[in-house]
Amino acid sequence: MSDMRTALVTGATSGIGRAAALKLARDGFKVLVHGRDAARGAEVVKEIESVGGSARFLAADLTDVSAIRQLAEAAGDVHVLVNNAGFSWFGPTTDLESDTFDALFAANVRSAYFLTAAIAPKMAERGQGTVINLGSMAGQIGLAGGAAYSATKAALTSLTRSWAAEYSPRGVRINTIAPGPAYTGGSSRENLTALGKTTLLSRTAEAEEIGDVIAFLASPAAGYITGAVIPVDGGRTAV
């Protein structure tokens, strides 16, 4: 067991995070399932163990920087970090309250920043590691009603490039995956289905399809990819 590589997936109790955790476990990683809901976390751990994988649940409030540092400490030696936790808000610019604006950036950007700051240097010392940031097609194109959320995802893409410049010379690969519409249980299925019809493949992704690409980026098969934004959006941003 001690020889197993460890993957820490934030927001892993549902949606894309859960799909990524399950796939990484199948690929032989010991998965640290992060979330806020211990019951849902226990379900994901049980699901991983039922297919012969290894996992444990770690709770942390990622809007609290001291809790982020405690999470990094509890995680120990991390080989793959998936910065997936966060939330979205869509609506007219004038309707967004300042506290929700701040919460968006705290959850989507600041959490990834300080978790990477706590974990990437240790990866660099070891000369090996991978960080995968969950961006969005919303960070690449203009979506009416998505100004603040899109800005958080564009920020993650920018951080990816800077972190690649900082850490990749010491063996740490850092990339962003930019999903299009995906069924994650977080948004209304009806809205997502309509958004899926605007893609070149005319459909919405399943969370597992996004998880598969995260697992690919975590694998040796992606050994020459760093500082990249990988669109997984059915071609939505291609045209």
Structure, briefly:
By secondary structure, this protein is of the alpha/beta class.
How would you describe what is shown here?
The chain is an alpha/beta fold. The chain has a single domain (6-232), classed as Rossmann fold (3-Layer(aba) Sandwich), CATH 3.40.50.720. It is built from 7 helices and 9 strands, in the order βαβαβαβαβαββαβαβ. It has helices at residues 15-26, 38-50, 65-75, 98-126, 147-167, 189-196, 207-218, and strands at residues 6-9, 30-35, 54-59, 80-83, 129-134, 172-179, 182-183, 205-206, 229-232. The chain has a 7-stranded parallel β-sheet, sandwiched between helices. Strands 7-8 form a two-stranded parallel sheet. Helix 3 packs parallel to helix 4 and helix 4 packs parallel to helix 5. The chain is globular. It starts with 5 loop residues before the first strand and ends in a 7-residue tail after the last strand.
